[in-house]
User: Fold Alpha-type protein kinase domain-containing protein from Rhizophagus irregularis.
Amino acid sequence: GIVMWYPILDTLNKLKDPNYFNKSNLFSRSFSFKIASQPFSAGVERYAYFALDIGSCSTKKMVIKEYHRVVRNDSFKKYIVAIEISTIASFLSTEFNLIAERKDLPRVKFLNV
Assistant:
């Protein structure tokens, strides 16, 4: 499989930059995995499967999501939008946690994927 991501944002200006989320900033990596034959959950748009990343020294547990067949015709475009949303959510949760720490508020936990 192939996983794609944008670099983690470190400033609000990058987040506001309309050119940040373009192909030139997109990274990808190939990896080998084993996936369960049946999903453990299904949302409105995607199925979620347990999987194992078997390409590295130690096997790593992971979750792989697949778009339902009904919406699969735009699945790559939807995947890119999901990457953008995840990148923004990661940045905003980090910024929130910096403020929350000073005000003794609970932190937001966001998985870095």
Remarks:
- The first strand starts at residue 2 and ends at 5.
- The beta strands are 2-5, 27-30, 33-35, 41-42, 46-53, 60-67.
